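Input record, target 12 of the design panel.
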């Protein structure tokens, strides 16, 4: 067996192994601490790129879901306001039908016109005051402006006004139907986006998240290697001392 003093090859080899084990231990501790098996590009460059892309997809889907929920909230507010507007229009229609009777006096017609004005005022507040996040929802809705032309001063004008009211109710119903269809579409979109987001998160997790049980086993194995490395280094450092001791004995 050869011995040397200047170059402790065994010690260098043992130290290199010990350093490698120490680095592996630090990496294992970091993975457990963060819950990620990829903490830097050096761990898995391609895996990090794919995981980041999947994470971006999931966050984008999440934002789109929030946007769709806002659209649903807006549609619900609009639908509720249109429902209230329809009820008022139906009340206006009753007054117009009542005014179509030739049995009414001029005073009766005047009273109905005043009631109509109050109903139009309430209707105007709904159309102008319905908002979502500062955005008016009904200001450009057709049907309301035509009702301002209703005239109950005679049988003929009342009968002509009835057609205007019916048209306004039909237009309002159509807008309400379109609003409901938009709400249904947004709900379907949310379901689809939810599935996409879950799939992206699952794929990201499979690439990026650490298996704690497996990593704990790896850490134990690395710890054993470090212990063995320390022992090997200690033994390697004994070798030069043994050579010097042997030389001392020879000289004697």
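The sequence produced for target 12 reads:
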């Amino acid at each position: 067996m050869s011995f040397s003093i200047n170059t402790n090859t065994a010690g260098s080899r043992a130290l290199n192994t010990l350093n490698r084990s120490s680095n592996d231990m630090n990496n294992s501790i970091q993975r457990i601490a963060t819950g990620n098996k990829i903490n830097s590009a050096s761990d898995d460059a391609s895996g990090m790129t794919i995981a980041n892309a999947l994470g971006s997809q999931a966050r984008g889907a999440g934002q789109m879901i929030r946007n769709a929920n806002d659209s649903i909230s807006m549609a619900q507010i609009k639908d509720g306001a249109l429902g209230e507007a329809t009820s008022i229009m139906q009340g206006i229609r009753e007054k117009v039908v009542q005014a179509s009777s030739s049995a009414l006096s001029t005073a009766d017609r005047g009273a109905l016109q005043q009631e109509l004005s109050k109903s139009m005022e309430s209707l105007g507040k709904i159309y102008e005051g319905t908002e979502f996040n500062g955005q008016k929802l009904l200001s450009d809705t057709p049907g309301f402006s035509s009702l301002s032309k209703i005239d109950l001063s005679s049988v003929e004008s009342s009968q002509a006004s009835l057609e205007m009211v019916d048209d306004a109710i039909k237009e309002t119903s159509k807008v309400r139907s379109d609003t409901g269809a938009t709400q249904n579409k947004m709900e379907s979109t949310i379901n689809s986006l939810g599935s996409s987001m879950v799939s992206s998160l699952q794929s990201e997790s499979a690439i990026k998240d650490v298996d704690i049980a497996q990593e704990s086993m790896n850490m134990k194995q690395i710890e054993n290697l470090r212990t063995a490395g320390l022992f090997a280094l200690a033994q390697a450092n004994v070798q030069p001392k043994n050579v010097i001791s042997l030389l001392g004995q020879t000289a004697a």
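The two ends are 22 Å apart (CA to CA).
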